[in-house]
Amino acid sequence: MKLLLLPLLATLVLPTAVIADDHSFESWKESYFENYPFECVEDGATPEYTRCAMEDLLKSDWELKKELNNDELWEQWRKARGKVCYHYQNKFFGQGTVKPLMSIACQQRLNSEAERYCITGEDKQCG
Question: Rounded to whole angstroms, how far apart are CA atoms 111 and 53?
């Protein structure tokens, strides 16, 4: 079971570019889960609550992409964020089903920090 889950979870960890103009959020989100057989269940098994976490990340990504309104900048952010999170997931989490979940959480945290410090103006020192 563990060997089956890792490839499925890995497909969720590195989202491709968001093309907000071509899809509604719901259709775009569902396209990420075409080959993922698990539904979001907050208190379910690892693959189920991983889907919930990924859905949260996708919503955050969608909003951040719209806020940035710059495809090149968005791609640079997504790639840098992915590399940073990949580095730390490998450093701290080794192997197992929790590893992709930690990368998702890391990416979500970086998105939320960008929003908190730079978009909402909560931190007046940004920029």
Answer: 13
